[in-house]
Amino acid sequence: NNAIRGDGNPKLSATIMVVGCLTNIVLDAVLIFGFNMGIQGAALATIASQGLTAIWGFSYYLKGKSNLKFTKTSLKLDMNIVKIIFAIGSAPFAMQLATSLVQVISNNALRTYGSDLAIGAMATISSIVMIFLMPSFGLVQGMQPIVGFNYGAKKYDRVRQAYRYSATACTIIATFFFLCFQIFPHQIISMFGVGSDLYFKFAENYLRIFMLLTFANGIQPMSSGFFTSIGKAGLGIIMSLTRQVIFLLPLIIIFPMFMGIDGVMYAGPIADAAAFVLAVVFARRELG
Predict the structure, then answer these.
(1) 142, 173 contact by CB (below 8 A)
(2) Tens of pLDDT along 192-250?
(3) Who's near 53: CB < 8 A, 6+ residues apart?
(4) Which of 174, 188, 98, 192 shows the shortest CA–CA distance to 137?
(5) Alpha-carbon distance 165 to 17, whole Å?
(6) Neighbour-count burial for 49-86, b at 16+ CB within 10 Å, e otherwise
(7) pTM score, two decimals?
């Protein structure tokens, strides 16, 4: 799908992804509940939807409609290209790795200063955060080929325009989620299962505090994707690590020493604020 999008056909790429997801959801319902197949039904649904999207994606190339052609010479590795791919891909890789690392450190802090109830609440909130970040990641992926193409063509006005439009869209979406987190925390958490009154009380408070600066959260991944797409992979990696590693990890370790379990909660918005300021400074310096 990434290759199809980069080949100049983002609509097909998006269609394949949406159809694959919907197929998985429908087959999950049919196989798990309709045929009482349980976890086996979920596995078969995933395999079937992945098979469908794979065949659909390959057919785009096999029909000869693509700019990218599959040839024997394409199978020979060009180390210069491989190095560029690794450099560009290192930023999103670092972000995914950092997310997992933050989860490990957070769980240890919650276990030390809280209880299993706190860990369960954090697991729910982590799922909510991922849903919140998905639109931002989608906008970043949509922005990157546009920025990369225009930057290479030296059309810098269009580069600035693409970044500003994308950053504005990210901020609007983030503000919407911020309002949802602050106004409807109970309803949002209830979507992920049932729990005791104590669990909901803790999870709602945690969600409100941890995501207090959600409205500023989209700029950091946007800036990371922007710098990666213009060939400044090193700066893209730094931007991708600012919130999770450079700011959030130390705060999660240090704050609970003085504030107990509340320190884990307040580490989130402070890391968001610091990452936002750094992303804005570097983006303004680059865009002029």
Answers:
(1) no
(2) 876 778 888 888 998 899 888 887 888 888 888 899 888 887 888 888 788 888 898 89
(3) 1, 16, 17, 19, 20
(4) 174
(5) 24
(6) beebbeebbeebbeeeebeeeeeeeeeeeeeeeeeeee
(7) 0.74
